[in-house]
Amino acid sequence: MPEIKKALLFINLHKVNAQILADEISKALRRKQIETFSCVFTNEPDFEVQGPYNIAFSLGGDGTVLYAARSMAPLGVPILPINLGTLGFIAAVPPDEWSLVFNYWTEGKIGISRRLMLEVTVEREGRPVAFGTCLNDAVVSALGIAKIIRLHVESEYIRLGKYRSDGLIVATPTGSTAYSVSAGGPILDPEMEAFIINPVCPFTLSNRPIVVPSREALVVEVEPEQRSGVLLTLDGQVTESLEPGDRVYIKQAPFEARLIACERSMFYRALRTKLSWSGGPDA
Prior knowledge:
The protein is an alpha+beta fold. The chain is built from five helices and 16 strands. It has two domains: 6-111 and 261-275, Rossmann fold (3-Layer(aba) Sandwich), CATH 3.40.50.10330; 116-255, Tumour Suppressor Smad4 (Sandwich), CATH 2.60.200.
């Protein structure tokens, strides 16, 4: 049984009853002699994690889990993702089942799903100017509608060459069901160790999505002749403006997101429901 002394609650107040549920969880944990802390937000989260925690609760939708993962994964803290939105691929625990799931986890009856994350560094004129991590995807895109950007992509082992497109998505298996699948990319099992490199509306039809091993460290370079603005976005939440000649280094992070009660079976159940596969969600 894991020793639980401190818990952190990520509370998305855009979700109905988020604060009510947070109060319920805090009271229940305090009865177990577990100290609780809260990260409450309504717009963009602005919270710096202080001190060690043994578990984090995400009260919101998939977006709340993404923010919690970027904060907790480097610390090795597991996240219990409670779904207060529509059916999500990551936030899997119904609000009325959080206590049952928490008890099952502390009793060793359910496990943790370990999810690959990306580590992203922006280098400008040979110097690092930005750094971040993400659970879903890193996207390099044009500023403005119908703007073509010019990128060059390679790694230590492969040279993919030049891309002319509206953007480029580098997605994890967890992120394969997000922006990437909308752009025609494949769906990957969430516990695989691989990246999807997926051009958005490529100018050349031969530029197709490709899946590469996660050991590939990618370099995405904004070509010097690029004229329109370029933006780097992590998990759809963190942005960084790019300039011509910038190099974006993308590799597997040295840590994983640890999600409680997010077994592969729940991922495939959500997939069947969202894509209306025959047989229904419980088939």
